[in-house]
Amino acid sequence: MTELIDGLYTLGEPVADTKAPHVPIDKMWGQRKFEAKLVNPANRRKLRVIIVGTGLAGGAAAASLGEMGYHVDAFCYQDSPRRAHSIAAQGGINAAKNYRNDNDSIYRLFYDTVKGGDYRARESNVYRLAEVSANIIDQCVAQGVPFAREYGGLLDNRSFGGVQVSRTFYARGQTGQQLLIGAYQALERQVGAGTVTMYSRHEMLDLIVVDGVARGIIARDMVTGEVQTHTADAVVLATGGYGNVFFLSTNAMGCNVTANWRAHRLGAYFANPCFTQIHPTCIPVSGEYQSKLTLMSESLRNDGRIWVPKKAEDCKKDPREIPEDARDYYLERKYPAFGNLVPRDIASRAAKQVCDEGRGVGPSGLGVYLDFADAIQRMGKDQVSAKYGNLFDMYERITGENPYEVPMRIFPAVHYTMGGLWVDYDLQSNIPGLYVTGEANFSDHGANRLGASALMQGLSDGYFVLPNTINDYLASGPFEQIDEDHPAVVEARTRVQERIDHLLEVDGTRSVDSFHKELGNIMWEKCGMERTEEGLKEAIEEIRALRAEFWRDVKIIDKSRDLNQELEKAGRVADFLELGELMCIDALHRRESCGGHFRAESQTEDGEALRHDDEFAYVAAWEYTGEGQPPILHKEDLVYEYVEMKQRSYK
What we know:
The chain is α+β, with helices and mostly antiparallel strands. It has helices spanning about 25-35, 40-45, 55-70, 105-115, 125-145, 175-195, 260-265, 330-335, 345-360, 375-380, 380-400, 455-475, 485-505, 510-525, 535-555, 565-590, 615, and strands at about 5, 10, 50, 70-75, 95, 170, 195-200, 200-210, 215-220, 225-230, 235, 270, 275-280, 305-310, 325-330, 370, 410-415, 420, 435, 620-625, 630-635.
């Protein structure tokens, strides 16, 4: 009989990555590429790969595999791949090019990323990410991505949080958009060539698993409502993160966890779900009517200075009337070595602390100032506008305040999720044939992602990693053809149809959004910037009760089975209600603070995160065991050979 721990989960067998070669870390990726089996060009034409999601990770992967000659079926729920949420990334993309000659290197990028993740990431994957980063820039320049350039024509760089070098390449405040256009044109080239078939406005609702192997997906045409079967030789999930479990986040409103969660329910391990990132530089909440939050790029922290009044009674004053000696530039004071460029988790908690002290600014008291007065005086308004103009314009349109004249007001908000499906060095999940790339997997960021590393990981996985690892699996083909009447296909399609029917038949009294907002409030208050044992236990019970009420009392007014956005939202919220509970269980079991996971019971005397490496230096990979059943925890031990584990300091 397996012991039930805390009444919430059981402990299973350890899990390990067996794909990374046992060679020095700088030789590992080259060795793996050499060892991986190849598929000759003629045989590639006989193989089909499904890719779900067409942001940077999925779009780059589809374009690359199509160019290699595989048949690719690419799916997105947007009306075009150009509307993938990657488009919203603003500040830049990291690469170890050392263009500024400030002592950057592959090893330093690797070290900064491991340290930034608070020593909870896998060394092998992070080093590979740093190693291929330089290739990404060359690839994107060749595609015509308009990176910012210096006067002499060389690519420009700027700094981001958690580092002391300039390694971030950028296209003003539109870097994600420009990179996505590059990936999109590469993808469309393959669509035109006939190697990629594009299915827009299609949402994956389940995974087809045949004899323990991923062989396809069940998707719903969001325009006609048709439930479709799509089979292939391998499936790639590139569906982004699950930050919308909090309802209010910087994510697009359509971002969801359904693809990952459907795979999880069929056996794919979900790793480190409690590792969510709170971004320090967002426009504060202005009212209950809001459905999402707006990010202000971290790049603004290069030249903007963050402060609050020293005295609470000054918080309602016009900031321009508060003299310099009455201002607390608290990041510069507490972390002199990094100042305003500390990592996101530290900057977010510091903002929360000063607001908790009663020194927050703005109507709600939940805000701090991001002030460009010094930068404008130093560089001139035109120079500031050249670097950040579109971000300033966006801020003014949303708030009605001119940031050239009045300091911006910012506050932390949910932004990114470091957790995701567990993958090995090849990016394959524990379900053979199921690969996971970009933000949808857990592999590269540990407990906190450094700024400008999301775009780096997405393009790294899509252009350079997956195309060199999936062939090792596909070389075992050709695989048995799976027909629509195969029992596993029929079972998956039936699951989807029954779920749709159930949602439409409930006919309760509460809207889908009301459940989503209530879940988001529970998650933000009890599994947000600060977690406690008591709060997490309360959250688990509250989420369970809310989930039961959802299936009893949700109301979808439109009963049509074709175009029905409320039905789409209901399915996504149902999955968030299950994910939210797992996130709280994961946060409760990890009795330490690390990165974005801050347990109030585990902190240093000066309020910094306190890790417990002797107990928690592992990846928590959770196995689904059935509805209402306790999940199984599988631990992957994290062994550091190249970076010394020590308490982070940015002072």
